[in-house]
Amino acid sequence: TPMIQLRDEAALVLAGCHSLVFIEGETTGDPLENAALKSMRWHLSKESGHAIPLLDTEKRKGGEAIILQSGDRISEVEVLTRHHFSSKLQRMSCVIKSVSTGKHFSVLKGSPEAVGALLAKKPAGYDEKAKYLSKEGYRVISLAYKELRSNEEVKSARESRSKCEVDAQFAGFIAFTCRVRKDTAAVLSRLQEGGMSIAMVTGDALLTAIHVA
Asked: Residues near 159 by Cβ (< 8 Å), separated by ≥ 6?
């Protein structure tokens, strides 16, 4: 599904699980997270800093509200707490509030392996699909969420990363292309001709790195 067509729980995770902040008139943070939000036609509000749909322009259609399986429509997301990305844990999570409905959620994203281990129930074909996308050269991120149904659950999730992330529900995979520069092959050939050794250093999944290589 193209990013602009996301309207479900996966969109909720992308709108709420990020490190983006609005400072001095600009959205700052991870460029990949900003690109994902923009691809949904959402952005951070200049007034509140909350994630909201972009308005229509003469050239482009604006963003749309997120519609959950419960039927809830969400058009504004406030991040209450961030459990920041850890390279060791391979994931990050947030506690968010739907300003539209007043409901609270834990949202989580990270490597398929890390997120899969925290799901209340891993869907059939989860591992196979993640491996397939990686073999195709995509950078694969797994998305998950759960509703926090009481003030006690919200408080616990805000205070404890483990409580925030445990027993989440799978929301989907997001796959980013990992394009190689057109002149990469020629540059590598020149380096090898010069007697230099070539090595790849990457934080991506092994299968993605193999595809790029």
From this structure: none
pTM: 0.82
Residue 155's alpha-carbon distances to 51, 103, 110, 148, in angstroms, are 22, 13, 23, 9
Q: Is 186 exposed, middle or buried (0-12, 13-18, 19+ CB in 10 A)?
A: exposed
Q: Which amino acid is at 90?
A: Q
Q: What is the pLDDT of residues 74-98, one digit of tens each?
A: 999 999 999 999 989 999 999 999 9
Q: What angle do CA 119, 121, 125 make, to 5 degrees?
A: 100
CB of 83 closer than 8 Å to CB of 92 = yes
Q: Judging by DSSP bridges, how do beta strands 77-86 and 73-74 pair with one another? A: unpaired
The predicted-structure confidence for 33-87, as pLDDT tens digits, reads as follows 998 999 999 999 999 999 999 998 888 888 999 999 999 999 999 999 999 999 8
What spatial distance separates the first Cα and last Cα of the chain, rounded to whole Å? Answer: 27
Q: Residue 189, class by beta-carbon neighbours within 10 Å (0-12 exposed, 13-18 middle, 19+ buried)?
A: exposed
Q: Is residue 140 within 8 Å of 173, Cβ to Cβ?
A: yes
- Token readout for 21 is 């902040």
| Nearest of 147, 156, 133 to residue 207 by alpha carbon | 133
